[in-house]
Amino acid sequence: MTKKLLLPFQHGLDVRAIEQAVRLAKGSDATLAPFSLIPIAERYGKKDSRLDLVQQSKDFLEVTRHKARAYAVPVEPYERYTKDCAQSICMLAYEMQCDGIVLFISYKGGLLLPADIISKLVDEAKCKLYIIRLPSDDRLTLSQKLRMSLLRWMPGKRTFCTQ
């Protein structure tokens, strides 16, 4: 059975986080399962999702596919409309028999997911959580920003400094 890592997303496309998740999957010899959650709200008795959230979802899945292709990492993308993001993440992780869920935080809070959903996952998730702290862009030194820019152009390199 192939190892699987779930990468959940709700908002705030962050290419650095996506690339780190791809690198983690590559280093773990795992399939990456990007999972885009589109929150739905009931308005006037009808289920409703904002168009910008749907577009962010599509962008997230496409960026993840592109980065994974560059690193030769297999992907199994998923997208779901949901009222309860944390529950949907836990359910899909269980259904897919994922080895772990990859979560990102920064000085400012959650990346790819809001901090409150990350907190719920810490409490409720039954599988391993990979919680990765990335520095905020405004807290990076000039050398770190340059290193990140160069590494984006050289996807085969494995060295990367996040702090």
Question: How would you sum up this structure in a few lines?
Answer:
Helix content is about 40%, strand content about 25%.
What does this structure look like?
The chain is an alpha/beta fold and 163 residues long. 42% of the residues lie in helices and 26% in strands. The chain has helices spanning 15-28, 51-71, 85-95, 115-124, 142-153, and strands at residues 4-9, 31-39, 41-43, 46-48, 78-82, 100-106, 109-111, 128-133. Residues 157-163 have low confidence and may be disordered.
The CATH superfamily is known as HUPs
Helix content: 40-55%
Q: What Rg, in angstroms, do the CA atoms define?
A: 16 Å
| Unreliable stretches covering 5 or more consecutive residues | 157-163
Shape: globular
Q: What structural class do the secondary elements suggest?
A: alpha/beta
Distance between the termini: 34 Å
CATH-scheme architecture: 3-Layer(aba) Sandwich
**Beta-strand level of the residues, as a percent range?**
25-35%
- The CATH C-level class name: Alpha Beta
Mean of all residue-level pLDDT scores = 85
H-E order: EHEEEHEHEEHEH
What's the helix count? 5
Most strands sheet: 6 strands, mixed
Whole-number tally of structural domains: 1
The CATH topology annotation reads as: Rossmann fold
Number of strands: 8
